[in-house]
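The data layer described in this paper is built around a simple, fixed record for each protein. Because each token names a local backbone shape, the row as a whole describes the fold. We quote a single record here, exactly as it is kept in our systems:

***
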Amino acid sequence: KQWYQRRVRGALCRKSSENLHLLVNETSLAFFRIEEHITKTVPHLQGISQQVRSVQVKAEGACFDQDYTAEFLSEVDIIPELQSVQGWVKNALVNAGKIKELQDKRGTT
């Protein structure tokens, strides 16, 4: 592990020394290398930035939906009309079943 760390540090020092030497002694080549690096990395970074924005918009939408739902559920107990919705749904399902049975009987006879 120490051997690897020394090797990495050595490589980083060499690369940093090369870059500083280029920047000080050969500025046009240094700026060319900087431009080259930018042209390689910017398109990739733009794609990542768009992905991050997309995820951020989805997360904000999900948070809004969650807040809205939590607010609605806290108010359900206050509104008496909404308390009977479950009963209405059950009645509707029972009636739909009865209608289907009648239609099936009429179709078979």
Observations:
- Residues 95 and 101 are 10 Å apart (CA to CA).
- The longest helix spans residues 27-76.
- The mean pLDDT is 83.
- The radius of gyration is 34 Å.
